[in-house]
Design goal:
Shape: elongated
Radius of gyration: 15 Å
Order of helices and strands: HHHH
Distance between the termini: 43 Å
C-alpha cells in the first residue's frame, strides 16, 4: 500500500476506532435497556449521547477531539 492510499484511509480507520469504543460502552449498559428493566433518564441520556457521537464528524481531527460522556 502506498502512502497516499494509507493517508486516504485515515478517516475511515479513526471512525472505526471511535465506533468500536462507543459500541463497547453501549454494550456495557445494554442489560439496563432490557424490557424487564426501567432505564433511568440519566442512563437513557448517556446512551443517546454515545449513539450521537459520530454525527457530523468529517475529519480525523474532529474524531480525535471527541469527548465521551461520563457514565452515570
Amino acid at each position: 500500500m502506498d502512502q497516499a492510499a494509507w493517508e486516504a484511509g485515515a478517516f475511515d480507520r479513526a471512525m472505526l476506532e471511535l465506533r468500536s469504543k462507543r459500541n463497547r460502552l453501549l454494550a456495557e449498559t445494554d442489560y439496563l435497556a432490557l424490557s424487564d428493566n426501567t432505564l433511568s433518564a440519566e442512563m437513557s441520556a448517556y446512551r443517546q449521547q454515545l449513539r450521537d457521537l459520530t454525527e457530523g464528524l468529517t475529519t480525523v481531527e474532529q474524531i480525535n477531539a471527541v469527548v465521551f460522556p461520563t457514565k452515570p
